[in-house]
Design a protein that fits this description.
single chain; alpha/beta; eight-stranded parallel β-barrel; 11 helices
Length: 246
């Protein structure tokens, strides 16, 4: 089980939103690379980075901050937000992003996901952001007509490395992960699933380490880390102990 600390970028700063609302952004750091270095020092194995402005604009908008993060840490980075064409995929992978996340384009241009995954095995993930089980797009600003499971099944044979499933209603409000919906999705797919949206405390990490969650690749944590509700040392030690006894 991998715990992915989140760095969400808006106007070059680290922020957290509430339920994807750009008007409800709390700035937690004006120095993204320093925040990335802090997470690396704490012992995290991966970083989850999202270009929020890019998700709305449909193209990278915080490229400078992302590049500074990539230069500041040696741990792998997965990146989403504004990745809508082959050129952007190639550009980020050439800059040593370990894994790119395709969200809106997975709904509107599934061929892009297939082509990117074919060209770059193990380096392409699909972001499925859902509200009441229906996928949202363009930085969660618009609702699609497709269900989360339907979208996941679309890529079962595409060679996708992971699906990042976010329950928008839980995101940023510290109400706990939607384990039931996440497990339902993971149980219906062969693709590894990463849980996202609402991780609030050590109790959530403990829940993720229960046997029924073994099928999950991990979970993303954001606000709980930034506001001190989740102690990184305690969380990572819990995961280490669970691995040792596995």
């Amino acid at each position: 089980m991998i715990l992915y600390p989140a760095i969400d970028l808006k106007d070059g700063r680290c922020v957290r939103l509430e339920q994807g609302d750009m008007e409800k952004a709390t700035v937690f750091s004006a120095d993204p690379p320093a925040q990335a270095e802090a997470f690396a020092r704490q012992g995290f194995e991966w970083l989850h980075v999202v270009d929020l402005d890019g998700a709305f604009a449909g193209k990278p908008m915080n490229a400078e901050a992302v590049e500074e993060i990539l230069a500041s840490v040696k741990i792998p980075v997965q990146l989403g937000g504004g990745i809508r064409d082959v050129e952007t995929v190639e550009r980020w992978l050439e800059k040593d992003v370990a894994r790119i996340i395709i969200g809106t384009a997975a709904v509107r241009d599934p061929a892009l996901v297939r082509e990117a995954a074919r060209r770059h095995p193990g380096r392409v993930a699909v972001g499925i952001d859902a509200r009441d089980g229906i996928v949202a797009v363009e930085g969660w600003a618009k609702k699609s007509e497709i269900k989360a499971l339907e979208l996941g099944l679309r890529f079962e044979d595409a060679g996708v490395a992971a699906i990042i499933y976010t329950d928008i209603a839980r995101d940023g409000i510290l109400q706990g992960l939607n384990i039931e919906a996440t497990l339902a999705l993971a149980g219906a797919l062969e693709i590894p699933v990463i849980a996202s949206g609402g991780l609030a405390s050590l109790a959530d990490v403990e829940r993720l380490l229960q046997p029924d969650c073994a099928r999950l690749n991990g979970a993303i944590t954001g606000r709980a880390l930034y506001d001190g509700r989740l102690d990184p040392a305690e969380a990572l030690e819990l995961i280490r102990k669970a691995k040792a006894h596995a």
